Amino acid sequence: MIMNWYSAPWQNFYCVTQKIAVSVLCLSVAMTQVHAQETQAAAADAATTNGDAGGGARINLSGKLRMLSQRIVASACYLQAGVSSDDSGAMLVAAQEEFALITDALQNGNDDLGVFGEETRRKTLIGIELLRDLWVPVSAGADEIAAGNGSQETVQQIATDSAPLLEMAQKLVPEISQQYSNPGELLLRDTLVIDIAGRQRMLAQRVSKNVCLFSVGLGSDAVLAELQSAADMFDASLRALRNGMPDAGVQGPPTPEIAAGLDGVITDWGVAEPLIATVLSGEQINADDLATMFSTANRLTGGMNTAVGLYAEASKLGG
Question: Over the stretch 102-117, which tens digit does the pLDDT of each residue have?
Fold first, then answer.
């Protein structure tokens, strides 16, 4: 059902971030001139049709759903394991509330979030409804953990149920981006960089989730493979954002503030890397190291969230 719903030409847009971790620069193939023109034309039509519907906020918030789908699992894992219980418990509840708030805003509008008016495009509404359906079992499991009524099996089920939720969130982002991007304000190259930076928020939580799952006895070959993939992509994307990768259409930081922010993320990533390496070697990390992973991943997500805002602002200024 999800694959039938998702047929936008922007599916090729993600080829860069999916391939960048293995140094396959496929932007010139995936983003052909025809696709670029189609995207710009669709965005121009959307800008005319939608007016001031809070397009920028819709794009950013839809991207945040990817991260929240992973943060909920990670927080549930840490809380059930008794790691940083006060913080992980509060984060689990906050992530649930924010996920529900954002999905409602994307469908019905929310002036406080900068999303003006109800969504009217049928395809987008169908995507949001599919997302809501997939959210129900994840939310129910998270409620059990937050209330202290969960178990390791509950965490495992949340992790399983979150996979299609993330998949749907991943596919909703380009649909909303295509619908609401204004080519007069945001060039395609800027959209690419903002999406890569936004995806880093999710990858940090995906890394954290899998480190926790493995270290509390819920590990598997699939968990290690997902951890390796997420860590590789985060690292390669961070290097591309900080140093530039022109062949893939990724420019270096457009402002000193963004450069400094990315340097901070690099520092935090250096804290996480040895913990990730330990888990990838097949060893579980202890409670103290899990607490470090939890806090570090949240700083990484926060740093990249700030970077997304700075990139968006720089694009408006022609940076």
Answer: 999 999 999 999 999 9
